[in-house]
Recover the amino acids of this structure.
């Protein structure tokens, strides 16, 4: 069996309402993960692209969060209707879907405009 060309990690973490940070699923089920799997399977990419559930990717304020390796492209605010574009444009075409890509300043940054001010950051 050949190596996978890409791994797609879909955050499926769930936190209860009222938690200090939001989470990427509202009920612990990930429609996104299932949609990615179905679409990749439907177009015959299953042997080349691995779709994985992920725990929290620490980009919670940008959820739903999806990251594609080996390119290290982080997508944020991903909705079910965006899955087609990521599959067709990125996974098939090799082109990053820029409208869904998280800004560099938002990834792994406590000063991202989407995150509340952290007491640790001030
Ligand atoms: S809950 Fe999805 S990135 Fe943290």
């Amino acid at each position: 069996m050949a190596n996978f060309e890409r791994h797609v990690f879909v955050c499926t973490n769930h936190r209860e309402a009222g938690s200090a940070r939001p989470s990427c699923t509202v009920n612990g089920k990930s429609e996104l993960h299932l949609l990615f799997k179905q679409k990749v399977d439907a177009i015959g990419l299953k042997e080349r692209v691995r779709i994985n559930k992920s725990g929290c990717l620490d980009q919670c304020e940008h959820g739903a969060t999806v990251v594609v390796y080996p390119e290290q492209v982080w997508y944020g605010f991903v909705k079910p209707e965006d899955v087609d574009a990521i599959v067709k444009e990125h996974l098939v075409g090799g082109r990053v879907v820029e409208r869904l890509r998280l800004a560099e300043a938002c990834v792994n940054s406590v000063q991202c405009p989407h995150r509340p001010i952290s007491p640790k950051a001030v």
The two ends are 50 Å apart (CA to CA). The chain has a mean pLDDT of 91. Strands lie at 6-11, 49-54, 66-69, 73-75. The domain at 6-106 is CATH 3.40.30.10 (Glutaredoxin).
